[in-house]
Specification:
Layout: H1 22-34, E1 37-44, E2 47-54, E3 56-57, E4 63-69, H2 73-80, E5 83-89, E6 103-113, H3 117-129, H4 134-138, E7 144-153
Antiparallel strand pairs: 1-2, 1-5, 3-4, 4-7, 5-6, 6-7
């Protein structure tokens, strides 16, 4: 069993996973591809918070995208502090064997993506993976914020 830090030390590379063990990179990519949801970890007022989010990610594993309503605690916390972590795991696949599960913690900064070409690209990736979110993302007036998480994997 491997435990963090697998992909450390941190690097100045634009893609922190690029120079690492290809097997581990493939494992992370496979886990993110298989698991449609993760737990977004935020903080505020001295408290940590976890929120389940649907996400999409870039093929090079450099960024993730999720959408949230601006009327949520999650949005308020992200607005106050953009340092976040996302935990993705496959424990549901091994209900009786915790030692067989895999998990990755992705740390970084969440940045709001404003409506425009970048937003359209990210929204397309998200709705391609989660078609049921299309009406939420496209409903006017925009009740949500899309956030891009630049990722460092540990």
């Amino acid at each position: 069993m491997l435990d963090e830090p697998i992909l450390c030390p941190k690097t100045d590379d634009a893609n922190p996973v690029s120079n690492q063990n290809p097997s581990i990179r493939e494992d992370i990519h496979g886990l993110l591809r298989q698991e449609p949801f993760g737990v977004l970890c935020t903080q505020g007022e001295g408290q940590p918070y976890g929120s389940v989010v649907a996400y999409a990610f870039t093929q090079d594993l450099s960024a993730l995208f999720f959408a949230t309503s601006t009327a949520t605690r999650k949005y308020c916390l992200l607005s106050a502090c953009n340092q976040v972590a996302m935990v993705v795991d496959n424990r549901d696949r091994f209900p009786n064997d915790l030692m067989s599960t895999s998990a990755v913690t992705i740390t970084g900064r969440a940045n709001q993506v404003k409506v425009g070409p970048d937003f359209e690209r990210w929204a397309h990736l998200l709705t391609e993976r989660h078609p049921y979110l299309e009406s939420f993302i496209e409903s006017p007036p925009l009740p949500f914020s899309g956030s891009k998480l630049s990722a460092t994997y540990t």
